[in-house]
Amino acid sequence: MRKVTIIGAGPGNPDLLSRAALDAIDIADVVIGAHRALAGIDVPPDVVRCELVKTADIAAALTDAASWQRAVVVMTGDVGLFSGARRLVEALSGNAQVDVRVIPGISSASYLAARLARPWQDWRFASAHGVACDIVAEAERAGELFLVTSGGEDPSRLSGELVQAGFGDARVTVAERLSYPDERITCATASEIAGQSFDDLNVMLIDFASRAASSRWPYASSGIPDELFIRGDVPMTKQEVRAVALAKLRLTATDTVWDVGAGTGSVSIEAALVARAGSVWAVERNAAGVRLIRENADAFGCGNVYAVPGVAPEALAKLPVPDAVFVGGSAGELPSIVEAALEKNSHVRLCVPCVTIETLTEACALLSGSRFKGFDACQLSAARAEAVGSHHLMKAQNPVFLVSARGAGGEGGAR
């Protein structure tokens, strides 16, 4: 049986190759890899050297070559971090005559962490190298992000996007040509990085923690106190109702949410803090409400909240496909709003708060129909302590009904 060894070569300096990797090269018949991966590696003179990059080309070379018994494929970085190793293993897995072994290398992440004398176990990882990266959505998730870029002006462009979204104070580290003699590591804010030029071979480390810590609500739980919102004469969904409504909507970190009749945007803010890597579209007909939504989004650091002036259902036509919809106000258009949501996504999750018997009756009839499943209706009756002299009395809030369900699927839905 022929043997293929895939090795991680590290950031680029051949001195970082492991002993196991060097041993595999010493006994190989053929060594394959990109030019940068092979540069500096001492390949024995009797060993065939092939400069190939694409998985299909490497797999074809290994399949077509009948003279080799031991092949080595060299890949930059570590085989487990945005590496082509996975695709190559998959391409070779159907060949019963080939035994595949994988030897890890030093990743650019672990190397950079060592250079900065910092731990990296809490970092998130993403790539902007040849793929789209929503850097603002990543910023909304806070924490520390290690980003593979390698594209000339990418650090500058991505930092510019952060500045435009209000994350100009994020701490950015750009590491160029790691492990090479001309290695350079630049640490500054996103505002300072934007506009600079960097070598094509680079990675980024972005710390969004300072932005998250300055938020009005740095907690993971919902139910933000009412007084933390910027208020006006526009109606606002109260704290207790918001907490339960968020539970009914069953949001994930990447969901797209509609908040129809968003008022001050209190539900939009709560949803945006859960769906940090998603988006919330707050539809409001009242101009004062639209202003409050934007002010509250800025105050809570929620760049993923988009205020949409307009009247439903017309204003919903151009919105992205929703995963969840909260109908805070329908102005008599609840059936049309529900229909618009179902047309976009036949599996959409909906939650409708009702303060009148008439709205409750209509919502129950709609969401308990054959186009939905998981129908639920509950009544919330909350009371808050209010100081009266030296004592506290419980003051009742208006009861609210929450009606929720999920689309059952079917024709016409986007998902």
Total E-strand runs: 19
Principal-axis shape: elongated
**Strand percent estimate:** 25-35%
Strand order of the largest sheet: 13-12-11-14-15-19-16
Percentage of residues in helical conformation: 25-40%
DSSP helix count?
Answer: 14
Q: Which oligomerization state do the chains in this entry correspond to?
A: single chain
Could you give the distance between the termini? 46 Å
Q: Outline the biggest β-sheet.
A: 7 strands, mixed
Task: Supply Rg.
Answer: 28 Å
Q: Count up the domains.
A: 3
The average pLDDT score comes to 90
By CATH, the topology of the largest domain is Rossmann fold
Q: Could you say which structural class the secondary elements and strand pairing correspond to? A: alpha/beta
Task: Draw up the topology in text.
Elements: E1 2-8, H1 19-26, E2 30-33, H2 35-38, E3 48-51, H3 55-64, E4 70-75, H4 85-92, E5 98-103, H5 108-116, E6 124-127, H6 135-140, E7 144-148, H7 154-164, E8 171-176, E9 184-189, H8 190-193, E10 202-207, H9 209-213, H10 239-249, E11 256-260, H11 266-274, E12 279-284, H12 287-299, E13 305-309, E14 324-327, H13 334-344, E15 349-354, H14 357-367, E16 372-380, E17 383-388, E18 391-396, E19 400-407
Parallel strand pairs: 1-4, 1-5, 2-3, 2-4, 6-7, 11-12, 11-14, 12-13, 14-15
Antiparallel strand pairs: 7-10, 8-9, 8-10, 15-19, 16-19, 17-18
Helix pairs in contact: 3-4
